[in-house]
Every structure is written in C-alpha cells, then in structure tokens.
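can u do me a favor
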C-alpha cells in the first residue's frame, strides 16, 4: 500500500508540474496553435505513460488495472497522432468543439423555450444563442478560432496543474501517515 501511495503522489505531482509548465507556455504563446498541439501531444504522451505505470503497479484490482492500461493506450495513440499531424489535430479538435457547441446551443434553446429549467428563460436563451454562434464560428473557421481555444486550454491546464499538484501533496501526506516500522508502530 505504501509503495502504491508513494508512486501515486509522485505521478500526481509530476502531472501537476507539467500541466502548470504547459499552461504557462500556452499563456505566453497563445497564437501558436501548432505549438499547443505539440505540447498537448507531449503532455498526453506523458499522461499515458503515467496510466501505464499505474496499471502495472502492484496492488491494483484487475478492473482498475485494465482501465488504467486502456487509458494509457488511448492517450499514447492520441499523442502519436497529435505529434505526427499537429495541423490536422488542431483543426479536427476545433471542428468537434464547434459541433458540440451547436448541439449544446440547440438543446439549450429548446430548454429555454419550454422553460424546463428553473433558470430565467432569457439567460438560458442568451447562453444558447452564444453557444450556437461560437459553434458556427469554430466550425466554419477552425484555424481562426484556434487562439481562443488555446487560451482557454492554457487556463484549464494551469488549473488542472494546481489540482494535481495539490492532490499529489495530499497523497504524500497520507503516505507518510500510513508508514509503519517493522514492529507495527507508526514512523514519524
């Protein structure tokens, strides 16, 4: 158990530091979508390797092991595609986000018109219209929309970096609390 916690907190801290570094790089150079895709590809590759380490660690149940290894395979495959074809990856990602925003906007409009939510109809409809407009913009102009998405993802990576860093240090504290000496007494 201690070995798994020791390994887990180190992986979480590493992912947090990498997330913060990549987020800062994207914040400094938001207009470089291809750099973003390459950095994202490297980040996802490292994340996939982290999933493999988790999947092959001792103490994992068969279900957790299989899930971690499957996530590792998917992450490595996505990373290889992103690194080898950054332009295509960026355009595809932006188009998918555009389609998602259009669908979200249509559903939001239906909810706003029917009043199926407790939120004010005007705000729901405004949000739906903004989603549809942004979705159409992303879908029709994926390369022009890249800067906006890069800035949002930079912010997200910074937040996730802080979350993983915090989680890693909390796991480290828990691992230290669980350490016992050979006689069964907790170690300081």
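np, heres the sequence
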């Amino acid at each position: 158990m201690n070995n798994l916690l020791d390994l887990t907190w180190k992986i979480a801290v590493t992912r947090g530091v990498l997330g913060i570094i990549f987020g800062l790089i994207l914040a400094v150079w938001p207009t470089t979508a291809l750099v973003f895709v390459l950095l994202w590809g490297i980040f996802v590759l490292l994340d996939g390797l982290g999933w493999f380490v988790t999947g092959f660690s001792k103490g994992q149940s068969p279900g957790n092991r299989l899930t971690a290894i499957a996530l590792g395979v998917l992450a490595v495959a996505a990373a290889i595609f992103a690194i080898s074809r950054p332009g295509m990856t960026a355009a595809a990602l932006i188009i998918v986000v555009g389609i998602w925003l259009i669908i979200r906007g249509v559903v939001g409009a239906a909810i706003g018109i029917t009043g199926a939510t407790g939120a004010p109809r005007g705000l729901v409809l405004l949000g739906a219209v903004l989603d549809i407009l942004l979705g159409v913009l992303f879908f029709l102009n994926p390369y022009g929309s890249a800067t906006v998405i890069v800035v949002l993802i930079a912010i997200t990576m910074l937040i996730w970096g802080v979350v993983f860093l915090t989680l890693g240090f909390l796991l480290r504290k828990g691992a230290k609390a669980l350490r016992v000496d050979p006689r069964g007494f907790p170690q300081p």
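The radius of gyration is 21 Å. hope that helps!!
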